[in-house]
């Protein structure tokens, strides 16, 4: 799809499963925990953790019982590790094209401040972002419209876009505010994968893309 960008265009992105796969964050956290618990032979533990996760067995309960560690500590290790994650192909090119045409870039993401900021730092895109809205910092989560209104207040524009992946909650507020909404189709690794339940008439205005190479900034 073509998006015409000028200094009055604001393009806002979700983070998890939109700019990178959240599953890769989980894998990165499991690796960090495994390295901490078994520094000389971490790979078998990592394999077991990921296998338990895929079998929907409580990974932290297994770790807590095996290594006599409180689950709360494991949760902190998970949330506060420095992630090893990568942008989807084409994201950086889209960001650079938006900036080259004087457009503005925002991020609206649910989650904890420290965790989400660590992800953005790892992805190397903080310098591109004109306004960052994180649910913990603003005190509300999607689909609350306050998160989107905060973008409108911070970044003036005639045209607002929101590019995200979760049909359940991502597009309700921006649709109601008259934003143009673009849904990134699940690549098979998304954490939230029940889009078929949320494809009624309120989503008919959505544009769908398979990946970021489907976006042409003009």
From TrEMBL:
GO terms for biological process: small molecule metabolic process. One of its GO terms (molecular function) is phosphatase activity. Signal peptide: none annotated. It comes from the Bacteria. InterPro entries: HAD-like_hydrolase, HAD-like_sf, HAD-SF_hydro_IA, HAD_2, HAD_sf. The keyword Magnesium applies. Keywords: Hydrolase, Magnesium, Metal-binding. Its cofactor is Mg(2+). Pfam families: HAD_2. The keyword Magnesium applies. This is Putative hydrolase of the HAD superfamily. It comes from Winogradskyella thalassocola.
């Amino acid at each position: 799809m073509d998006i015409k960008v000028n200094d009055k265009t604001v393009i806002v992105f979700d983070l998890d499963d939109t700019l990178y796969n959240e599953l890769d964050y989980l894998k990165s956290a499991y690796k960090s925990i495994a390295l901490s618990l078994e520094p000389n032979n971490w790979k078998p533990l990592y394999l077991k953790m990921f296998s338990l996760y895929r079998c929907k067995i409580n990974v932290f309960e297994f770790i807590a019982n095996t290594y006599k560690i409180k689950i709360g500590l494991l949760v902190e290790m998970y949330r506060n590790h420095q992630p090893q994650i990568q942008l989807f192909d084409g994201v950086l090119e889209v960001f650079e094209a938006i900036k080259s045409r004087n457009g503005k870039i925002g991020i609206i993401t649910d989650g904890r401040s420290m965790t989400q900021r660590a992800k953005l730092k790892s992805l190397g895109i903080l310098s591109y972002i004109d306004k960052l809205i994180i649910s913990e910092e603003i005190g509300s989560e999607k689909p609350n419209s306050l998160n989107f209104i905060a973008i409108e207040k911070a970044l003036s524009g005639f045209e607002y876009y929101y590019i995200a992946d979760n049909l359940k909650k991502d597009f309700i507020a921006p649709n109601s505010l008259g934003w143009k909404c673009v849904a990134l189709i699940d690549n098979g690794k998304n954490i939230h994968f029940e889009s078929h339940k949320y494809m009624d008439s309120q989503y008919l205005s959505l544009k769908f893309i398979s990946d970021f190479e489907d976006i042409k900034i003009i």
